[in-house]
């Protein structure tokens, strides 16, 4: 599909952003749960990521929904830059696809939610999360949707930065596929049924 065709759907498009850091050395970190969910959604679309013409993100385009009843057009995105610089790359995508912030869904790790649970909300601050901080700065607003995947607080006196930039424990890794699957389900429900229904169904 050409880049010209990509931007043709205008305001009907949803932009789903998996927040994380690029490269194999970060792939198993708690901070990269957004990437994992984005990859699961791409798998459900049956497509692989490719470079967007901006050169700053990888994207998958398609429709999320049950076979025979395709939903609205969706772009799944992973920024190619580090978490604290991701806002500019995602802002460029919202401009290209003509997506307002209220049709952006950011998937990210959340310290204040226990591991194995999640919360979905629209708007809010960044709570010290560098990816959210970058998005809010680039958008000029915090009024975008968030799928907040719980990672819990670091044990003992471990620094937060060390905790989020470390791999899940062996026990947690067994649960990650279920957590990723549930978060992907929440994204699909948010797009298909709206915020209130999604919160009722998934907010733990």
From TrEMBL:
Highest taxon of source: Bacteria
A Pfam family recorded for this sequence: Pept_tRNA_hydro
Residues flagged as site, Stabilizes the basic form of H active site to accept a proton: 109
Active site: 31 (proton acceptor)
The keyword Nucleotide-binding belongs to this UniProt entry's keyword annotation: no
Gene Ontology cellular-component terms listed: cytoplasm
Entry keyword Hydrolase: yes
Function noted in UniProt: Catalyzes the release of premature peptidyl moieties from peptidyl-tRNA molecules trapped in stalled 50S ribosomal subunits, and thus maintains levels of free tRNAs and 50S ribosomes. Hydrolyzes ribosome-free peptidyl-tRNAs (with 1 or more amino acids incorporated), which drop off the ribosome during protein synthesis, or as a result of ribosome stalling.
Record's protein name: Peptidyl-tRNA hydrolase
Native organism: Nocardioides immobilis
